[in-house]
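Section 3.1 - Work completed
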Amino acid sequence: MREETEQVDSDKPSSTNDYQLQKENQKEQRRLARRLEQLEAQIEDLDSQISQLQEAMQATNDAGELMESQQQIDQLTAAQEAFMLEWEELAEKV
């Protein structure tokens, strides 16, 4: 009888650890999903900004404005590519 009690007691920590591990995994999945949503929003925002700059470039003939706009587009594109790379890495984990 005592052996049965010890066996049951030894099973409890395992099931508790499984539950905690499951909760931690769920928490991590939620965190990843939130980050993916943030990245998607940031990528869309950058895409919108790039489009606006491209439209502004078509509306001007000023070389200085064109160069400045192109530099901004280059910076935004680099940031967008970094967000896309992070998004791809996180999407593989989800």
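Second construct:
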Amino acid sequence: MLAVMRKRLVETHVFRAGQQHAHSLSHGRALGAGSPYDDDMNIGERIERRPDLLGGQPVVRGTRVPVRALVGSLASGMTIEEVCASYRVTPEDVRAALGYAAAVLDEDKALGGASPR
């Protein structure tokens, strides 16, 4: 149950905040000013959003693999290696997806989003 709740939370935040910042990510910039996540994870180089691809959901660049699928798989207990094998992505792609999700949650917090309890 907790994994499902986490997945829904991440999906909601990733989609909502990702829509607001699609332009930033597609041009290699972090979600928020001074985001600590993009520097080490190359989010802008690995994650993209295009209106013609999965309705604009954030995906691993050059694939149809949604960020939410990678994050959700990790939340359900899969290892990074298992996720990579299942979705045919690299460990760097998975880390970028996690960085994207973390940056989106950080952005939501900075904008005064309610913290779930």
